[in-house]
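Recap quiz, item 2
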Amino acid sequence: MNYLDMNLWQVKELLDKGEVTSEQLTSMCFEQIEKTKEINALLSLCKESALKTAKEIDEKRKKGEKLGALAGIPVVLKDNINYINTKTTCASKFLENWVSPFTATCAQKLIDAGAVIIGKANMDEFAMGSSTENSAFGVTKNPCNTAYVPGGSSGGSAASVASKQCFASLGTDTGGSIREPASFCGVVGLKPTYGRVSRSGVVAFASSLDQVGPFTRCAKDSAIMLSVLAGKDELDMTSSSVEVKNYVQEIKGDVKGLKIGIAKQFFSDKLDDEVKTKIQNAINVLTKNGATTVEIDLPSIDVALAVYYIVSSAEAASNLARFDGIRYGVRAKNYEDLVDLYVKSRTQGFGKEVKRRIMLGNYVLSSGYFDAFYRKAKKVQKIIKQEFLEAFKKCDIIISPTTATTAFKIGEKSDDHVAMYLNDIFTVPINIAGLPAMSIPCGVSEKNGMPIGMQIIAPHFEEGRIFNVADFYENNKEVQ
Amino acid sequence: MSKINLEEAKKLAKLSRLEFTDAELNTFVEEFEKTLEQVNAIDSVDTSKIDLYEETLLADSQLREDVVKESFKQEAIVANAPEKKDGAFVVPTTVE
Amino acid sequence: MSWKVVIGLEVHSELSTNSKCFCSCKNKFGGEPNTNCCPVCTGMPGALPVLNQKAVEYAIRMGLAVGCKINQYSVFERKNYYYPDLPKAYQISQLEFPLCVGGGLEIEVDGKKKFINLDRIHLEEDAGKLIHDVSGTLVDYNRGGVPLIEIVSKPDISSAEEAVAYLEKLRSTLLYVGVSDCKMQEGSLRCDVNLSLHKEGEPFGTRTEMKNLNSFRAVLRAIKYEAKRQAEVLDKGGKIIQETRRWDDEEGKTYSMRTKEDSQDYRYFPDPDLIPIKITDEYINKIKADLPKLANERIEDYMNMGLSLKDAELLTNQRKISDYFDEIIKQFNQPKFVCNWICGEVFKKLNTETYEDANIELSAKQMANLLQLYHSGTINQAVARQLLDEIWGTDLIPENIVKEKGLAQISDEKGLEEILTKIVNENPKAVAELKAGNQKTMAFFIGQTMKATNGKANPKLVGEILNKIIKEC
């Protein structure tokens, strides 16, 4: 029996039964990482501490001590999540040697639940990108076909779960950075409601849009992960105090009476026909089992991408200003004075896409442009949010494709940043509205064999509905 | 419709504390034009009826209590510094 | 027509909360560099600010004390600029929705009263400190993230004296509401001056901003210097450049730091890490109810006790003095008597030069005890003054010293009569003069009696007894 092929909830049961130990699982994961090295999913490993933790958990289990929900399960963190005394590079040359003196709240929650952190995952530099091609440490390859990108920015986290290096991983999603790679790699990726998971200790890209979420092999695993991750954090004012549910119990195994909202804006001509068909098939699985579809209108989501680029770049420009070469990170070798130190350190430390976003961000914030861009964008954001709230009066969930196409080849879009940005058109509106959404696999392209992802969107803090629908689909898709 | 020229791009680079060659800046201006086309899409939305107010936290009950917690050790604060002396960060001589 | 000076002040006052504005590090002056620091106040990647409730309360408290309107919706914004003392490369401050707007306070210069309007009071975080060293500049973030309020006046001030009177009033109010210790030396109270000149009936001229003003005296001198400098430039037909100028206290001059051309584009925008806050009426009312009594109310109270307006104002210039007075009269209820002593003897003790940081080195309990002894006639004035010198800066109890050293004044009539009879007999010439109506001779007899009693004789009694003896002989 290959444990690595199992879902998290399945190995959890086997660990509880004593059929396998955490130490064994952890070692298996490290072996698998070695075997699948070529995909370049991870930037650093925590071998020593992971095996030590695994042994400790095994000991505790032997003694019959009470264990957390993730006791002994090997997991991976995206490399923009601080984990004490390890490097958090954000896949940037600037932070190549930054060793964090503290642990992010989300990572701490995993640790407190007994998870074994085995490594840090590759990503687009500072989470800016949709392919991990913007990593300063080399692109991650899609485990389904190494000629393809894994998506991004959390490409390493998605690829790590897809290539069975771990049972779950954390990513961050600002405009689709969990859902897009989940879709491209054929795994489950959840972006929770904005504020559901603390951002404390997670290196910010765009603070008002960033959200931490899990990659898993199935919806139930995702529910287990969110139950651990969610909750108010006194270190993050934007974290919500809305009650955290036991999300596993939200899975009812039934979609009778479920109203699925379908917006024509998500099924435009930009959508690949094959993707469209697969999504339609998936919806049919649900409607055959008692769900109904209802047409909804989201007229302003077409401009969500514009709002996204204004708001995220503005926040990023400010968030990344602290990388100045004084307290940590790269300091240029030769500089004339203080200003030159700033300029040279930043110019040497940042990659092209990061520089582009910083420039755009400072442009929209600079005097004379602020009202026309930033302020206007914030107002449009309100309209988009309002449209979703209206739509949810008519339906329980909304279903759309995660991306318009399947994964593209490495290098295919790297010179065309506008085409790359368009990749996010279905995921970005969700961040703009602050909603929770999940990408789950719903088939494979017959053209290139790459996975296709379906996006399930719920109202704020109704992640439970997503888990129920996704789990139902996973269990019933074979029998359509 | 917003546009950008080389001169503005140079100013923006200065503001961003970044340096580009002229060739890089020219490419940047071209790409920037395309991005701005995208971004200008928000002009089409009527926002005249939308106010700026966002959700709030209550000042008397939802903020942090004024309680001191232990600070980090000095070594931890300066551990990653490219240049440090006696527990302080060192920068080129700066007088204002 | 002469130039009119137009001045607006931006006063920064550090709030005396326990912890910093956006993290739980200790709000404490000095110490080893970077020892009151954490990832938040040193701008480490991933660290997030969390707003201190007390800092908000203190800012509102000050706002209420100076009649501001409290904004029920308040937003924190990022002011973006690069400087090594600013670890995030932005300062969390307020622009569009500050906590308090409007308000103002009344000042008095040369007997003339004037109301200075405020533009706003907002909350922001302090920057770290730069220390200059042979190897470069050292950066210490202990002060980084300490809560500050910025109190911005309207350009209502028209002289250096008014500016200082305004600062004194502001400082006194800050101390009254108890939100800041206002130590200019330690930088917990700082002031920037915006100054321009214009002629009556004409629009305001171009202004300069002066920084690095570390004392009220520096403010006074800098304003006088800068007004003169600008007048000279304008009189020669020159133009004032909008710029920031640094005051050099030793040289007594201002120097250009930067002009508007290279001034920063701060790119303010709402900080997405900090949710806007809502301040309810209930909360405002609660803070209002807890507000300590301010100078005006105390003046009224004091006048009701029978003090003159002038005395009441003298006592209330500083909360510390007023509190001291209140404490003394709780134990010894003779307001007028106590007031005279504070305004006379105590003020003499407090070096007027350093008045703003004056330290009363005598507890109210000691003072009440001393004044009781004096008021009841146990000791005379000379002894009371002598005792004040002796116990200042100690915890000695006047009563005990009086007992130990036998300082109680001699009010024993028989004893004094004996001494006086002796003096009268020894000085027939003086007796004759006194009888002739030369009252100055009275002082001679009192002096002689004091000498004989080591200064402890009751002067009033001495007079009475002497008159009796003279009449008899």
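Residues 216-235 of chain C form the longest helix (20 residues).
The mean pLDDT of chain C is 91.
End of item.
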